[in-house]
Specification:
Blueprint (H helix, E strand, L loop, with lengths): L8 H12 L3 E5 L4 E4 H17 L7 E5 L8 H8 L3 E3 L7 H11 L3 E4 L4 H11 L4 E4 L28 E6 L9 E5 H8 L15 E4 L6 H13 L2 E4 L5 H11 L3 E5 L3 H6 L12 E5 L5 H10 L4 E4 L1 E3 L4 E4 L6 H9 L5 E2 L5 E5 L13 E6 L6 E2 L14 E9 L4 E7 L4 E3 L2 E3 L1 H9 L4 E11 L3 E10 L5 H9 L12 E3 L13 H8 L4
Parallel strand pairs: 1-10, 3-4, 3-5, 4-7, 5-6, 9-10, 9-11, 11-12, 12-13, 25-26
Antiparallel strand pairs: 1-2, 7-8, 8-19, 14-15, 16-21, 17-18, 18-20, 20-21, 22-23, 24-25
Helix pairs in contact: 1-2, 1-3, 1-7, 2-3, 4-5
C-alpha cells in the first residue's frame, strides 16, 4: 500500500465484508442478535448511497452519538465507503466539551440514538452547527431501505493514504479532549496482526468481547480488525462486570480487553462456577497498573494469558506488548508484571530527559518518544508541531524506563507527575498503596501546590467501610518513603470524576477538592 496505488479504509473494509459473506461478524450480547459480514455490507452500502444524496462527499465529516447495537457501525462504514471522515461523540461528555468539539469539526450529518437526541440537539444548537440529524429507530430506517442501485455501488477513491479517515477525541484527563486525526494508512496497518497478536496460533480464530463504542479508539480498532480478519466480535452496551463473565462463557470468548481501572471490579464480581476457560488472551492497559491488579487478574483467569498493552489514540491504539505466541516473552511478562513488553519492529524510539533532551539509557526515567507509520496526522484544526521534537519524534507525554532486556515500563503521565522539592513522585505508586487499605475501593493522587516544596501529594479516596482520613493517611505514610508521604493528607469523596473512557479526570478532581484544601 503506497501513494502510487492508494487504497482507502472504505475499499479495504468493503472488500473484506464481501470476502467473508455470510460468516458471523457480530453478536449483540444484550439482545442475542447476530449480524453477518454480508448483512453489514448491504446496510452500509444503502446508507452510503443515501448519504451521497444528502450531499456527503469525500472529506466531509459524518458523526454518531449512540451506544452499541446492531446498526451502530453502519454510519462509520458508509462514511468510509464515500471517502468521508468519521468523528464520533459520546453523550457522557460534558455538554460544554461536546459543544466545543462540534463547533470545531462541524459534522454534515449526525446519527443519534433516541435516548441521546435531546442532548445532541442542544449541543448542536449551542455550537451553531446545522447538521442533519438521523435518529436510530426512526428516520434511520430510510437509510437501510432496499434500493435499485445498491448492486452497482463502488467505494470512492482517495488521492493519498495519508489523508485523514477518522478523527477520534483524546481522553482529556488533564484538559479538554482534542481531535486526533488518523490516516487511511494507519487503519490499514493496524487491521493486520503485525504487532499485537490476538491469537495464540496463526490458524486460530478469535472471538473478541468489548463494550467500547465508536467514540473510543478501541471501538473502531476492534471492528476494523475483525472485519479485515473475518473474525467475530461480541459487543455489549456497557461494561457490566457480572454480565461480561457470563458472555465469556456463553459465546466462548477467546480474547478481551479490560481497562486497568476496571480490573478489581471485574475480579471481585466473578460468579461461582463460571466457565471462562475459552478465554486465551486478556489485554489490559489505559492507565497505570499495579502488581496487585495483575496478580488478581491472573488468579481470576488461570487459563488465560494476561498481557499489559501500551498505546494511545495518537498511535492508533495499542502497539506494544509481549508476544503471547512466544513462550520466552510470556515468561518475561510473568516475571515483570508491570512491563508493557518489547518495542515492535519498525518503531524508532528514544527515552529522553524532558528538561535537557538528553537521551537516557536503561533504568533511567524519561519521556518516551517514537516514530512509526501509524502515528496521527496531527490534532484537528490545531497546530500540532509542539508534540514533535526537532528530530520528528512524537512526544508521548509518558514517563517510562526500560531494562537491560529492552522491556519497557510506563511510570506515569508527565503532566500527572508530582514534584516535591527536587523529587518527582509517581501518583500511580501511591495509588497502589492506597488501594491496599481494606476500606478503600477507589483512589487517586494529586499534587497540591506548596510555596516552598512545589507540591504536596494528596490522596483522594472512595471508601466502602467506616474509616477516617487520618487513618488512611497514616496507613500510606507508614509504607512509603519520606518523599512520597501524603503531606496534603487524604480526602474522602463520594465519587472520583472520570473521563468517558474511565480514566481519572485530574482537572475535575482538582476542582473538586480545591474548596476543602
Amino acid at each position: 500500500m503506497n501513494d502510487q496505488s492508494p487504497v482507502s479504509v472504505g475499499q479495504l473494509l468493503f472488500d473484506s465484508l464481501t470476502k467473508y459473506g455470510d460468516k458471523t461478524l457480530l453478536f449483540i450480547a444484550d439482545t442475542g442478535e447476530r449480524v453477518t459480514h454480508s448483512e453489514l455490507l448491504t446496510w452500509s452500502v444503502r446508507a452510503a448511497l443515501r448519504l451521497r444524496e444528502d450531499g456527503v462527499r469525500r472529506g466531509d465529516i459524518v458523526s454518531t452519538c449512540t451506544d452499541n447495537h446492531k446498526y451502530s457501525w453502519i454510519p462509520f462504514l458508509a462514511t468510509q465507503f464515500l471517502g468521508g471522515i468519521s468523528a464520533n461523540f459520546n453523550s457522557m461528555l460534558p455538554p460544554e466539551e461536546a459543544v466545543l468539539l462540534m463547533r470545531s469539526i462541524r459534522p454534515k450529518v449526525l446519527f443519534v440514538s433516541k435516548d441521546d437526541r435531546e442532548y445532541v440537539e442542544r449541543c448542536l444548537k449551542e455550537a451553531g452547527v446545522d447538521a442533519k440529524l438521523v435518529v436510530f429507530g426512526s428516520s434511520f430506517s430510510d437509510y437501510i431501505a432496499q434500493r435499485d442501485d445498491e448492486s452497482d455501488f463502488k467505494p470512492a477513491t482517495i488521492d493519498s493514504v495519508t489523508e485523514t479517515a477518522v478523527v477520534i477525541f483524546s481522553s482529556g484527563t488533564t484538559g479538554l479532549p482534542k481531535g486526533v486525526c488518523l490516516s487511511h494508512n494507519s487503519w490499514y496497518k493496524i487491521a493486520q496482526p503485525i504487532s499485537i497478536r490476538y491469537t495464540i496460533n496463526d490458524d486460530d480464530a478469535y472471538v473478541f468481547l468489548f463494550c467500547s463504542t465508536l467514540y473510543w479508539i478501541t471501538g473502531i480498532f476492534n471492528i476494523v480488525r475483525s472485519i479485515y480478519t473475518g473474525n467475530v466480535c461480541v459487543v455489549c452496551r456497557k461494561f457490566d462486570t457480572v454480565e461480561c463473565w457470563k458472555y465469556i462463557e456463553k459465546y466462548k470468548v477467546t480474547v478481551m480487553f479490560i481497562g486497568t481501572f476496571s480490573i478489581m471490579d471485574f475480579v471481585k464480581s466473578k460468579p461461582e462456577n463460571i466457565d471462562a476457560s475459552s478465554l486465551k488472551l486478556c489485554y489490559t492497559g489505559g492507565s497505570p497498573v499495579t502488581v496487585n491488579m495483575m496478580k488478581s487478574l491472573c488468579e481470576a483467569l488461570p487459563h488465560t494469558k494476561i498481557l499489559l498493552l501500551y498505546g494511545m489514540t495518537e498511535t492508533t491504539g495499542g502497539f506494544m506488548s509481549f508476544d503471547p505466541t512466544d513462550d520466552r516473552q510470556y515468561e518475561m511478562q510473568l516475571a515483570k508484571p508491570l512491563s508493557s513488553g518489547l518495542m515492535p519492529e519498525g518503531v524508532e524510539w528514544k527515552v529522553v530527559d524532558v528538561n535537557t533532551n538528553k537521551i537516557l539509557g536503561p533504568n533511567e526515567n524519561g519521556e518516551l518518544r517514537v516514530k512509526m507509520e501509524i502515528l496521527m496526522n496531527g490534532y484537528f484544526g490545531v497546530d500540532s508541531s509542539e508534540v514533535f521534537d526537532s528530530d520528528g519524534y512524537f512526544k508521548t507525554g509518558d514517563i517510562c524506563n526500560y531494562d537491560e532486556d529492552k522491556c519497557f515500563f510506563i511510570v506515569d503521565r508527565i503532566k500527572e507527575m508530582i514534584k516535591y522539592r527536587g523529587w518527582q513522585i509517581s501518583p500511580a505508586f501511591i495509588v497502589d498503596v492506597l488501594l491496599q487499605h481494606p476500606a478503600v475501593s477507589e483512589a487517586a493522587v494529586i499534587g497540591i501546590p506548596h510555596e516552598i516544596d512545589v507540591d504536596h501529594p494528596m490522596g483522594i479516596v472512595v471508601v466502602d467501610k467506616k474509616t477516617t482520613e487520618k487513618e488512611i493517611a497514616d496507613f500510606v505514610n507508614s509504607r512509603v518513603t519520606d518523599v512520597q508521604k501524603l503531606r496534603a493528607g487524604v480526602r474522602i469523596v463520594e465519587k472520583i470524576p472520570k473521563t468517558v473512557s474511565g480514566k481519572v479526570k485530574k482537572s475535575a478532581l482538582i476542582e473538586l477538592v480545591k474548596d476543602i484544601v
